[in-house]
Amino acid sequence: MEDNDASEESRKEVFHQQLLRGELKISEKRGRSKVWTVFGRLVDANGDEISGMVACRTCQKLYKSSAHGTSNLVKHKCYVNSRGDLKKIDIDSERKRKITKAVTEWSVENCRPFSIVQDNGLRKVLNIFLEIGMHYG
Model pTM? Predict the structure, then answer.
């Protein structure tokens, strides 16, 4: 079993390097699942599909393709972030107060409705900021 895992990782690395060099592309996969808005199949220069592999269009991470569905893909960070989902965390009362004050001032100064905090576009922007903060500290 370990040999198969090592072989699979080696295969993924070869395909990843080819993808980075532009020898492979990520196709526009059409399917019923919403994950295909983020993922696609790998294809070579002739448009022939590389069987058993899919890739994220955002970060180019490769995943083994499964005929059984897309459950292994829906947990990928780029897909989760594309849906605008934010993880719930506990925030201390001082930070809540600062956030409330800042949003209130922003709304009043720029004639924005308070409901703007529920806007999906704003959530996507904030998600990007959170990712940058997590990455760079």
Answer: 0.54
